[in-house]
Each structure stands twice: as C-alpha cells, then as structure tokens.
Hints:
The structure is a homodimer.
Chain A: H1 10-22, H2 35-41, H3 46-58, E1 62-65, E2 69-72, E3 79-83, H4 87-92, E4 98-109, H5 112-118, E5 125-135, E6 138-147, H6 165-172, E7 177-186, H7 189-195, E8 202-212, E9 215-224, E10 229-233
Antiparallel strand pairs in A: 1-2, 4-5, 5-6, 6-9, 7-8, 8-9
The structure holds a DNA duplex.
Amino acid sequence: MKPTRTTLSYRDIKKVVLDRIHGSIWPPDSLLPTETELAEEFSSTRTTVNRALRELAEEGFIERRRKSGTRVLNTPIRKAQFAIPLIRDEITSTGATYRYALVEQQSTVAPDWLAARLSLPPRQEVIHLRCMHFADNTPFQYEVRWIVPDSVPDVNDADFSEVGPNDWLVQKVPFTNLELSLLATKADDTVAAFLDCPIGEPVFTAERTTWLRQTPVTLAKLYFAPGYKLTTRL
Amino acid sequence: MKPTRTTLSYRDIKKVVLDRIHGSIWPPDSLLPTETELAEEFSSTRTTVNRALRELAEEGFIERRRKSGTRVLNTPIRKAQFAIPLIRDEITSTGATYRYALVEQQSTVAPDWLAARLSLPPRQEVIHLRCMHFADNTPFQYEVRWIVPDSVPDVNDADFSEVGPNDWLVQKVPFTNLELSLLATKADDTVAAFLDCPIGEPVFTAERTTWLRQTPVTLAKLYFAPGYKLTTRL
DNA sequence: TAGTGGTCTAGACCACCCG
DNA sequence: GGGTGGTCTAGACCACTAT
C-alpha cells in the first residue's frame, strides 16, 4: 500500500543535486552543504554522497576543493565527449555496407615534415599507406597513413590489401598516447578525386597520432567526404 | 632504510593493470581475474579494486559484465574529450587579447528551417544575433545565434553590445541538454568578409544547440577563422 | 542456479588548503 | 590549525546473466 521505503542510491542523489542546481536552489557560484550534511539529509553515508558528487564534478557541474567545499560552476559542462569508433562500425551502424580498398602501400624514407613531427631520426624508414573507405560504395573517407615499423613487430610483412591498417594496428599494437586534431582542409586534386568532389571543396579532416610510451607508432590523416558531421549530445 | 611499505591506492592498481594490458600480459579479449582475486593479490579490498577497474572501464580499456567478468577490449573505444572553453578563455589562454563586437541584434520571426530544427510553433518570435570574436584584433570567430525568448527571462531587455550572448546566457539560463556538431563549411561572402578570408575557403564550423529540459533555448553557429584546429590528447 | 560485478554501510585516517 | 574532501577497510546484500 505505502510506497516502498528504499534508500537512495548515488544515482538518485546525483539527480536530486542536479535538479537543485537547475532549479536555482543552488545557483552558480554557491556552496553546497558538506558531504556529511548531505549524507545526513539523504539518510545515506558519506561514501555514497561522495560518489555522487565526485561524478558530478567529473561531468563538469561542480567544483570541489578540500576545506573550501563544493561549489556550483557557472559555466556548466566544459567537456564534449566524442566516441572514436572504428570506421567500419561507424558505417555499418547506419545500415550501410562497408567496403575497404587499398590504394598504395610502400616503404619509404620519412619525409622531413613527418620526421620532425614524430621526432624520427634522419632517414628513418616508414611505411606509407593510402586507402579508401566506402559506405554503400560511395566514398566515405580517404586515409593517408604512415607507420613507424620499428615500433610495430611484423608490420613489414603485413598485407593491407584486405584488412585496413587501423584494424590491423589495433589488434597488434597497444598505444598509450594519442593526439587527435580536427580541422577543415581544402580538397587538393588527389583528395577531390578520391572523394569524388570538386577541387577546393571543404573537407572535414582528422589527424590522429599515436605513441607507445614515448615511441611514435603511426600518423593518420583522415579526409571525410563532404557533408560529414561529427555530432555529440550531452 | 627499507622502502616504506604502503598500501596500493586505486591509482596504483590502475597503473599496474594498464601496464599488464599494454605489456600483453593480459592481451585483448582475455579475461582478467575477478575483483576478489585482484584484491587478494594487491593486499587490498574489493572496493578499491572495483574503483580502479570501474574507471578503466569508463576510459574504454576494459569491459565489465556481471557473471562473465572483466575483459580487455581489443578496440580501445577511447573517448576523445574536447574542452569547450568559453571563447574568451580560449583566446586569452594563448596570451592574446580578446575583443568582442556585436554586429547585429534584432527580434524576428523564426525562419522555417530554424522552426523545424528546434520544433518551434509557427511564427515564433526569436532573437537573432551576429557577432565577432577577435584575438589580438585578428578575426577569430564569427558567431550567428538565435535565442528563443520564451525560455529565457529578460532576454528581450538584454543588451549584447558589451557582453557576448554566450557569456550572458551561461549566467542566466542553465541548460540540461546540448548537441554539438563539428563540420567543414565553405565561406560564403558574409563569412569570408568577417573572417577576412577568400570566398569559398574551408571554415571549421561548430553548431551548438541547447535545451532546458525539452524546451529549446538557443542555436549558435560558430565559424572559426581559417587555420583553426581543435586538438585533444589522451 | 551460481558466479560475477554493483552498490551500500559504518568507520577510520589522511592530505590538502583556506584563514 | 582546523575543516573539508580523498581514500581505504571489512563486510554485506543485491542484480544481472551465462550456463
């Protein structure tokens, strides 16, 4: 008959706190009660309240400091999170058919700009790859990639005609550090040809560099077909 | 004399586990020991081990399921996290001087595409704003924004000639939902003029929509000057 | 149904940092 | 110096899910 009396979980506490922030009960810059006080109010323990507040802080709603206490941030959510899916997943998840094609694979001496960017020794041999990713046979992404073979066992024997370099690498080499840049570039004649768009067209581009500890592993430049949009919701 | 014997923190445990994953002691797809076993190995408690593993799972290194256990992911679905700083902070943090300028502010009926996009009723009045953000007096970002005044108290009396709409809004209106899209657009004559670049130039563009619960609050299109790059490290 | 992670409790000590 | 959050312990019960 009566509503079942159950204790509040840390998720419930998060909701209540968020509601109070959004409802201006705890306006921006104001101080929240201490963990102990909240634990008492919610008939919970400090451990549980701590987890709720810790997660809200990670999500960018509040700021916590020892001694000063917990404060509501006036600039909520400063972090946008984008998943970095494998391109095959990204395409097949839309219902389209994924197809991969190798354009070129060769061993070569790292060009100067690459050596500088990855801190490679002079005349370092690298593997240079170019390939295409299609969605329903429509150009989706043109990929230009360099791999530093010293960091990647067996890469010289690898055959990238069937398996894309990213798929191959994630299976073989863990990476510890990653740098990802997003920018808009102008399609040169090569990119335009592969993406089937006019020369000079704006192209959404991602540059992705990975390291294993301090050792550079690979640099990829990913050119997305016109119309591509990277979207996230919070 | 001897190294002080201290218990492992959840951070230490995270490091050890990550090292074992990167060192292929626990290769992709393999199963980790249970929390209880790990707690024993580290002379710790299950609570502490749990926190370490939970965070590694959030960071995309492992996958946890009741009964099955904890598995190493072969595709590190690492999440790219981009800071979305206030633009003033973004500019001043580089050492440059920030300047804001209002270009236009008017009340108008929402154009059809906007009404459709935000699910507005027909002939909804909206505030239309255009403004510029400069870094050391060089064009940095051209902003086009619409605000739904129904959701924002006092916005009809607001003066955006000194304070940017984003700065104003974050102080006045909490939002609960946000959608952010990143794309590459072609500079039309207006954008080109404001960003001081050739017409047709690729422009890195962000579109940001926010809601308070289900009610749309504002839509902003942010056009960044050529050369802009959004970068993150993991 | 049994094994694994998910969460909560009650208590403790500690690290940081503001005043 | 003292107040606040940060973390750990030891134990318990529960929820999910593979078998």
